[in-house]
User: Fold these one by one.
Assistant:
Number 1:
Amino acid sequence: MFYYYYVNKLTTGNPNFNHEVHKSICYYLPSESNRIYLGYFGSCLDAIREAKKYYTIAKRQNRKEAEKAKLEYENQLVQVDNEVRTELYNLKKFIKKHPKECLAIDRFGVDFVLCF
């Protein structure tokens, strides 16, 4: 039997984050704004083949972009971590040189330093 088939655009609605193919009579058919019309097919396998044309290349590109973004984020974290370590080092040096001007307070496991 032939049916109209659609593929969902968003992948957030399912546990494996996959694009899903639906018949036009499917109870879980996505809204019109969240689906792409694939065609009129006699089997779901034909519809799946058509859906793969839309998303196989896009997934590869998205994976590369995600890996690049993750690497940039990790580099930013390392840079911020290094900046924080440098500031702490400089603060410790200042406290050692000027102990009378600084008051260290330990409240709730957090160190505060007041410098006058």
Number 2:
Amino acid sequence: MARDPKRGLYDKYDVVRTDGGCAVGARHERCSHFVLDLNHDARYAIPALRAYANACREELPVLSRDLVAVADAMERGEFTDIGDFMPSSVGPANNEETYTVGPAQGGGHE
């Protein structure tokens, strides 16, 4: 569908939590979500990611860092898939999550 500058918010996506948190009776059963298309709307998604990262920096510093990394990759033209920025493993010594920042080998969509 082409962009319609006269159209405001509308239902375009169904979002389902992967952790089951939106199941009937769960805490997030009736939550509303706003979706950003990181692959096709970079012009709007990059400043939105940076604004969210800034807003959550103190309470959710790891999420903030990840969102900035995604926005940076998008600006460099290196973004392919959000999965490339998700935890790849948990370090055994201090239980810290290890992240791949940038395109993962063999990951993403063509």
Number 3:
Amino acid sequence: MSAFARRKETSSTTQTRNKRIAAEYGCILTGRRDGVDPAHWPVRQSQGAGWGLLEFVPLSRYWHERLDAGDPLAARLVSTAARRYWECIIRRYPEEYLGPPERVKEVMDELSR
């Protein structure tokens, strides 16, 4: 299997896992479980391959679109709700890939404040 095929497979597996977890938790702002997508938060740094659990939050499509459009209210609400979500994720999925070490450290430092 070529490196490109492996990367694509990894990306697909990651996307499936992230969608499953997003649907399980529901939107972190509304609690809605249908029409929920994993939204890259705080910033999108890659093309999605290998995204860890601390690099996305589940949002309804409405809030995801507002966040992508640069709405400052959406960003402020997501920032606050993301902390609670990540605390749950760290406890519930300790064996899953959380993200690159620098991202995990950043989140852990933020949660300890």
